[in-house]
Amino acid sequence: MTAAAGRLLLVSVAVALAMFGAPRPVSADEGWVITSFQSHITVNRDSTLSILETIRVNFATEHHGIFRTIPLRYRYDDNHDRYYNLRVESVTDGTKDVPYDAYVDSDNEVIKIGDPNVTVSGDQVYVIQYMVEGAMNSFSDHDELFWNVDGSLWPVPKELVAASVDVPDGSFQKAACYQGVPGSTQPCTHEAGGPTIAFNSTRQLGPGEEMSVVVAVNKGAVDVPAPMLEDRLRFFPDGAFDLNPFTIGAFGVTLLLGLGLVGRNWWSHGRDREYLTQYYLTNDPRQRTEPLFEHVPVAVEFGPPQNMRPAELGLILDESADPKDVTATIVDLAVRATSPSPSCPKRRTGNLPGKARR
Asked: Of 94, 343, 345, 349, whose CA is between 20 and 30 Å from 147?
């Protein structure tokens, strides 16, 4: 093999490893699809909703079943959340009961449908019947149902979404339908025929998309109580505090008080203090706080206090005469012996005057 061929082989292997070994994005294909989602909603005179959902799915691979997730809590205002009460009544395949488990998770009603010991594939039908309390809205001139039919929490596309809403006879005013991502205003179709209003999506809805319906009825046709509210659930740091004049003002006052307390503590106890005299010479304990803008340089003097000897200091410090004190004393004596004394005359060198040189 030539050198050029060897390099080409190494490059090819490296490219193959990069292609197959590098992490790839997770596919959106979950192995199943919702072929039809149909919901029949009945608005009762006591404002409760009787809902019957027929969900048809096709499993390309074996699955145990599906999860139906329905939000129960929504933001109402800065201080309150609105919540619904939901009660699952039955889950069937259209003819016989299907095992399910209903529980609340993160403010959502989760309906786990299917037998954990049995897998299914192909076309399957799940029929869910449940009651909802607290979903109707009251206005001055009408009452209204705003309902998210299918939800945006499905991980798979929905080929068709349809809904029908039954209202009390003679109470219907108007309706609207929206499809797409949450908050979308893209219209879908609706048609009113007597007390029943039919809604249909106009296209396939992808994962994360939903269809919502709005139905207005005459005031008084339904007994709509006040919305059920609870104090907002707050999670730190996001959403822990609301920005309003009160919280902003409280934050400003707290900040000023905190800064003032810190400044006062520093002014009283945090600044340097200095002796007014040479304390170690005079034993005068008078002292003061150093003025704010007065910074007098500190002259550092190196020397034992009161000209004491190393052995004396060592004995005072640890109350014992040890080899270190002896060693320090020897070194101190050596330093003193070699240092010139001011009273000692300097030696003269050279020829003495009046003497002849040899």
From this structure: 94
Contacts of 110 by beta carbon, 8 Å cutoff, 6+ apart: 67, 68, 69, 102, 103, 104
Do residues 314 and 299 make contact, with C-beta atoms less than 8 angstroms apart? Answer: no
Going residue by residue through the chain, which has 358 residues, state the pLDDT in tens, using 9 for 90 and above.
555 555 555 555 554 544 444 433 333 468 899 999 999 999 999 999 999 999 999 999 999 999 999 999 998 987 899 999 999 999 999 999 999 999 999 889 999 999 999 999 999 999 999 999 999 999 999 999 999 999 999 999 999 999 999 999 999 999 999 999 999 999 999 999 889 999 999 999 999 999 999 999 999 999 999 999 998 866 655 555 666 788 888 989 999 999 999 998 988 888 777 777 776 677 788 888 877 777 767 666 666 777 788 888 888 888 888 888 889 889 888 888 876 655 555 444 444 444 444 3
Q: Domains in the chain and their CATH numbers?
A: 32-231 (2.60.40.1730)
Buried b (16+ CB within 10 A) or exposed e, 76-94: eeeeebbbbebebeebeee
Q: What does the block give as tokens for 289?
A: 């706080």
Please state, in angstroms and rounded to a whole number, the distance separating the CA atoms of residues 151 and 179: 11
Q: Which value, to the nearest 10 degrees, does the dihedral of the CA atoms of residues 61, 65, 70, 72 take?
A: -140
The beta-strand segments (E) located in 64-185 are 65-71, 73-75, 80-83, 85-92, 100-105, 108-114, 120-133, 136-138, 142-148, 161-166, 172-180
Report pTM. 0.62
Instruction: Please say whether the beta carbons of 59 and 32 come within 8 A.
Output: yes
DSSP-derived 3-state class of residue 197 = strand
Question: How far is residue 4's CA from residue 38's CA, in Å, rounded to a whole number?
Answer: 65
Of the candidates 15, 94, 13, the one whose C-alpha atom is nearest the C-alpha of residue 53 is: 94
